[in-house]
Design brief:
260 residues, alpha/beta, 40% helix, 8 strands, TIM Barrel, single chain, 8-stranded parallel barrel
Length: 260
């Protein structure tokens, strides 16, 4: 775990950090070849379970998916989102984070900042639990999806928040939907890596929800680039399968076992 964290820290100002989300072994096995960090995100609430936000996903659900993802990983750093409500104070946060690591053998957890819970990050880090921070648009605490840091005062507030997260001991920090100027200021100021999502090239790395970038989720804000259109490919395959079944073209002799 310590070696993997050190490897990420050493990429600061040297090479870009590649991150994506995964919720299953099969996906993780592919991502592991190309990613530095794989995140089991609470975004599964929207992507897999059809919820309107991330607030309804539970610790047990996150743990079950992480157990699957872990089986597909050999080299990547495996980070898990602490779901909403699982870290209201230091005691409960510590208990739940330790449970996640015990159940999943993950390498660390991600905690969204509400600009108040720096002591929770410190508590986890002091308990030998690596923490990734998260500022800007934080879905667990903010209802409105908008650009963050678009005035000098707001950008300075975000920089202060990022500094406090670093001081608390986080090994990296996600910057979500920050202006390029704010992202650059924070990235240049911190000694720990920044991972951007919708926050420009001015970050040490990038993360996207895998289902978004593969054209599977139906959620495509401006910051998401679709690298594939799997929804179309899957529909074509299912349509062909349906047609062949109805026309008795599938299965053929080569698709079933011969009698001995």
């Amino acid at each position: 775990m310590i070696f993997k964290i050190r490897k990420i820290l050493n990429k600061k100002n040297r090479s870009k950090i590649v991150c994506l989300t995964a919720y299953s072994k099969n996906t993780a096995k592919i991502l592991d070849r190309y990613c530095d960090i794989i995140l089991v995100g609470d975004s599964m609430a929207n992507v897999l379970y059809g919820h309107k936000n991330t607030s309804k996903i539970t610790l047990n659900t996150i743990a079950q998916h992480t157990q699957s993802v872990k089986k597909g990983i050999q080299k990547s750093l495996l980070i898990v989102d602490m779901p909403k409500g699982s870290y209201p104070n230091k005691k409960i946060a510590k208990k739940n984070a330790k449970l996640l690591i015990k159940l999943t053998k993950c390498d660390g957890v991600k905690v969204e900042s509400n600009n108040k819970n720096f002591n929770i990050i410190s508590e986890l880090v002091n308990s030998q639990i690596p923490v990734m921070g998260h500022i800007g648009y934080t879905p667990q605490f903010k209802k409105k999806f908008k650009v963050e840091g678009n005035t000098k005062k707001k950008a300075e507030k975000l920089l202060k928040e990022a500094r406090l997260i670093e001081k608390a001991g986080a090994f990296s920090i996600v910057l979500e939907c920050l202006t390029p100027k704010a992202a650059k200021a924070i990235t240049n100021d911190l000694d720990i890596p920044t991972i951007g999502i919708g926050s420009s090239l001015n970050c040490d790395g990038q993360i996207l929800v895998t289902d978004d970038m593969l054209g599977m989720s139906g959620f495509y804000p401006k910051f998401v680039k679709r690298y594939a259109y799997l929804n179309t490919n899957i529909e074509k395959a299912v349509k062909k399968y349906s047609s062949e079944v109805k026309k008795s073209k599938f299965p053929t002799n080569k698709n079933f076992f011969n009698e001995s």
